[in-house]
Amino acid sequence: MGDILAHESELLGLVKEFLDFAEFEDTLKTFSKECKIKGKPLSKSACGSLRDSKSSIIQKDLLAAFDSGDQKVFFDLWEGHIPSSIRAGDSLAQKLEFYLHIHFAIYLLKHSTGRPDKEELDERTSYFKTYLETKGAALSQTTEFLPFYALPFVPNPMVHPSFKELFQDPWTPELKLKLERFLGLIFKASNTPKLLTLYKENGQSNKEVLQQLHQQLVEAERRSMTYLKRYNKIQADYHNLIGVTAELVDSLEATVSGKMITPEYLQSVCVRLFSNQMRQSLARSVDFTRPGTASTMLRASLAPVKLKDVPLLPSLDYEKLKKDLILGSDRLKAFLLQALRWRLTTSHPGEQRETVLQAYISNDLLDCHSHSQRSVLQLLHSKSEVVRQYMARLVNAFASLAEGRRYLAQNTKVLRMLEERLKEEDKDVITRENVLGALQKFSLRLFHPRRPLQTAMIQDGLIFWLIDVLEEPDCLSDYTLEYSVALLMNLCLRSTGKNMCAKVAGLVLKVLSDLLGHENREIQPYVNGALYSILSIPSIREEARAMGMEDILCCFIKEGNAEMIRQIEFIIKQLHSEELLDGVLESDDDEDEDDEEDHDTMEADLDKDELIQPQLGELSGEKLLTTEYLGIMTNTGKVRRKGAAGVQWGGPEPLCRPITPGGHRTGYPALEDHPISPQMAKHARNSCLPSLPNAHRPVCKGVMPGPEPCTSSSCAGEP
């Protein structure tokens, strides 16, 4: 009791400080009154009062300098008391600082009674110009601020139409109000009450640390699995080298006995034994007519490595699984959907993953062929946000695999449900991301049966929805932005898609031209491809010329890389083209494209930011499946595939076919049958997607021509 009394005044002071900070005004009055009645001493937090007093003085000085136009005093206080991390990293602070520099640059023009002092005006203009060339350069790619970079060079900005708004009466008061709100937030955040600090430093912070450690453990396990897959793939490649070595040794022994070995025979050995990706690289890089090639290959060979077999996962009782997915509790449904997805995303590429997928398909896990009103697919419309999200993740995982896309594409009701979910989902960003990702993968045209899905998406007005969403790209996550632009480009490769764009040509062109300057450079190939494609329509070309599209494109030529510049030059050529529709448009009935094997792109985003964690004693993941849903012989063996399922990075004409961002997103590499490292993915982005076909070849269905095909080993297509 004595200890409590000894610290009572300080404790009561902490409570008072917190109530004051949280603005519980009535509660604070009642608390202070009761303390006074009971004779309880209330210590004043000297530290808090001092901070409040100092913060108040700084805010007043900043606002006074703003009103008086004292540029030097203002920015000395700004840089001295606004944390550099906020000034450099917070977009709101950067935009506010930009407008503050404009305010001081034009202050004399707005407040001088006669002609402003030329020397002082030049000094302010020079200060603003220096800011634009240094700190302000970060916003040079933002459409909102682009016109203001011309402000220091305009002789009389007061009469210039681009700067008319700056000299209207409401502009300065509105800017001051934004400044006051910003300062209030900054200094309030820095005056955290001691009670809150103590709370964070103890129980709550410990919980956050545990959560962070758990997340780090999950990520570490995932990285470990990724590296294990890569290691196994390297082992497989070396195993192939052993086979090549044996063939070459036999060939050398044959030469000793006088038999002639031709270069064509040596090349056929490698073509027969090497994996698809290694074969393409070897065919371009090894000259079999050069002396010493065989001995070099021999020296590169290593001792045989015994490959570790990857076991198949246990079979499951799919009837029981589907019953619980339909009738179980929302939490059980979420854990089951998560576990089924993990079976796909964490299984080893090859026979193990193919067997899992084939079991899902043969047992119609998603009820794609069911005509019942209650089906697993209906979980996309569940009232539970977690269930909806996890169902969307599972569908996206299916769509990430070629056989999974074929399974989903057999029934157009899947497409309709995804479109409905996409347009209705406004609460959960991740749900919308996964639905969008699945639809984008549906838009790939690498085999004919999915062509009707493209047509259906266009007829359902999906292009209009995409354009509407892309009008505000800064509000979108990187995933949503990249997959939206990629889907738009894929749909614009169809003549029906181009004609749909022609109905809102002005809006489409504005959105695409704005996206050219977006800070996310991953979307550039898709924006360029969409622009080039729709400009094959004469009415869209006419609209583009009217809005000065060539001038906009020329602005980006100055700052783009070589491939970006080359693509924009072809877009400008298309803009000036006078070709008629029949000469460039792809026919919707044209089925002459290669029926080549599809991509598998299992991106890491499928398992990001999990919403549910098992409680003590609760089963999840593979343990849940094998404990509660173990089945007998539901696995049907390895799926026969026509070609390599590895991730391929385009070919000689990469933009002639729809593409997906999944194979080269940042994060962990998508390791399929042919792993791609981040470095290879980056090389693919720089060398393949922007590369364009040879100019002397015909333009491929409205897609940009280019000076040379991609020749890197990671970019080669099927021979």
Fraction of residues in β-strands? under 5%
Task: Give the proportion of residues in helices.
Answer: 55-70%
- Total count of strands: 0
Tell me the span between the first and last alpha carbons: 86 Å
Low-pLDDT ranges: 274-307, 582-597, 637-657, 663-719
Task: Quickly give the structural class.
Answer: mainly alpha
**Major sheet: size, sense and barrel closure?**
none
The overall pLDDT average reads 75
Count the DSSP helices.
Answer: 32
Gyration radius from CA atoms, angstroms? 32 Å
Shape: globular
Can you put this structure into words, describing what you see?
There is one protein chain. This protein is mainly α. Mean pLDDT is 75; it is low at 274-307, 582-597, 637-657 and 663-719. Helix 3 (46-68) runs antiparallel to helix 9 (171-190), helix 11 (263-273) runs antiparallel to helix 12 (276-285) and helix 17 (385-399) packs parallel to helix 20. The protein is built from 32 helices and no strands. The longest helix has 63 residues, at 194-256. The protein has helices at 2-21, 25-37, 46-68, 71-81, 84-89, 91-105, 107-111, 118-133, 171-190, 194-256, 263-273, 276-285, 293-300, 318-327, 330-346, 351-362, 385-399, 402-409, 412-424, 429-442, 451-459, 462-470, 478-492, 495-502, 505-516, 524-534, 538-546, 549-557, 562-575, 581-584, 621-628, 678-687.
Describe the protein's topology.
Elements: H1 2-21, H2 25-37, H3 46-68, H4 71-81, H5 84-89, H6 91-105, H7 107-111, H8 118-133, H9 171-190, H10 194-256, H11 263-273, H12 276-285, H13 293-300, H14 318-327, H15 330-346, H16 351-362, H17 385-399, H18 402-409, H19 412-424, H20 429-442, H21 451-459, H22 462-470, H23 478-492, H24 495-502, H25 505-516, H26 524-534, H27 538-546, H28 549-557, H29 562-575, H30 581-584, H31 621-628, H32 678-687
